Amino acid sequence: MRYDNHQRDHSRNDRAGFHNDRRPRRNRREETPQVAVEVGQRFPLTIKRMGINGEGIGYYKRMAVFVPGALTDEEAVVEVTSVAHRYLRAKVHRIRKASPHRVEPRDSYADRVGGFEIEHLAYPQQLQFKHDIVRQSLERYEPRGYQDYDVRPTLGMADPYGYRNKAQFQVRQADDGTVQAGLYAERSHDLVDLPTCSVQMPVTMTVMRALVRMLQDLQVPIYDEEHNSGIVKTLVVRAAANTDDVQVVFITNSQKLPHKHQLLLRIADELPQVTSIMQNVNPGKTSLIWGDTTLHLAGEETITEKLGGLAFKLSARAFLQLNPAQTEALYNEARKALDLQEGMTVVDAYSGVGTIGLSLAGIAQEVRGMDVIPEAVADANANAALNGITNAHYEVGTAEDVLPQWAMDGFRPDAIVVDPPRTGLDQNLMDTILAVHPQKLVYISCNPSTLAKDLVELTEDYRVDYIQSVDMMPQTARCEAVVKLSQR
């Protein structure tokens, strides 16, 4: 688990491109055909499969063509949007033969911003796609014995909408002075205003749009990226599904927040569901959403969410999975995969606020965890105390630093659970895990490509018992997976 600037998450800008994933050595040696093609050129294309970002993939004179919005087996006329040495990018100009699984997206802007990559694909086929991309990744990296892995069908939702507990929208002012809040258009910093969003919990959008109206009415200075001026950069609204708490965070260019008093009065009057109001200061032009300084403005400093019978206090920057219902399903799968016995010790690496480790404390003799973010560790230890858990302890530091120190002190865990960011396991942590060599190992992945890459090394010492994918983010190409590994 991570905090937002380090998390696996959930903005569209950090998605790994299909063509950038490391390929097996034999693919890198293959000669890429040279194709004379120009931007704007159109040609017919049959989509052979879908890539890990949800784009359709076809071949033009043996050269791969990536087409967002196209589905497997569709026939389309596409228009080239960019030309690279090894591949082309294109957009759909016209669909000649549509897939029987194509559906109308609920969100009219689904083809303009990230987070809706496969909303045009019927949900049963979305689940099949996510199962397939796990298989694709295994075939690309070929970890030991991958042909025989038990890759189980993806666990989906009964209703794959209205699940996101946090809206993190950029705020800008249009040329006509209108305040807008939404997401950037693909591959740009052009803001797309989102008055509605079908995958958000309704309360997050109710609060978000009310805040936008308040900023407009009070003429609070909005951040201007081009001139690095103005104040309000980003609005964050997070709701706790099981306690009805709602937190608002204003991410600003400076500590100054003009009309703050009037803003807080209006929130108290018009949005009684908001229980926590915070300000995060992130000055200047930066690719990071969050800054280092967080100020308490009104209400409580945290909100409380309940998962699996445990309560978790969440500070403004605390990372929690975006889908509360599927989070419980994911952690249930992790517990099943670990299959802890009474008296076993377990390490929760990338522990965040302790959601995974604390759920294991009822069985384990001792739970230890670590995270590089001090606030996360403070939250984790506070959450242990909140739930009356006395056999769990969290420390600040990287797993590759902390775990060897624990080993030197005589603590060698029976089990380790890792939940790394999209980049996968740090090599030093990989080396540390293999050196400590726990009896049980569970890998929770949010990126099938880096999972498969990491399994190449892990399977030298461990056997993959099974892979269970879980759909944490319907309508997107994202796929989570729980991998049960055991010593060879």
Helix/strand/pairing category: alpha/beta
> Rough shape?
globular
Number of beta strands: 23
**Arithmetic mean of pLDDT:** 91
Physical arrangement of strands within the biggest beta sheet: 7-22-23-21-20-17-18-19
Main sheet record = 8 strands, mixed
Number of helices: 10
Secondary structure: helix percent:
10-25%
As a percent range, the share of strand residues is: 25-35%
- Spatial gap, N to C terminus: 28 Å
Mind telling me the C-alpha Rg? Answer: 23 Å
> Unreliable stretches, pLDDT < 50, 5 or more residues?
1-30
Summarize the structure.
By secondary structure, the protein is an alpha/beta fold.
Describe the structure.
With 488 residues, the protein is of the alpha/beta class. The chain is built from 10 helices and 23 strands. It has helices at residues 25-29, 123-141, 202-218, 260-270, 324-338, 355-360, 374-386, 399-408, 427-436, 448-458, and strands at 42-46, 49-50, 56-60, 63-67, 75-83, 87-97, 151-155, 166-173, 179-184, 191-193, 232-239, 246-252, 276-281, 293-299, 303-307, 310-314, 345-349, 366-371, 392-396, 415-418, 440-445, 462-470, 480-487. The strands form 4 sheets. The chain has an 8-stranded mixed β-sheet with strand order 7-22-23-21-20-17-18-19, with helices on both faces. A hairpin with a 6-residue loop joins strand 9 (179-184) and strand 10. The longest helix is centred in the N-terminal third of the chain and has 19 residues, at 123-141. The radius of gyration is 23 Å and the shape is globular.
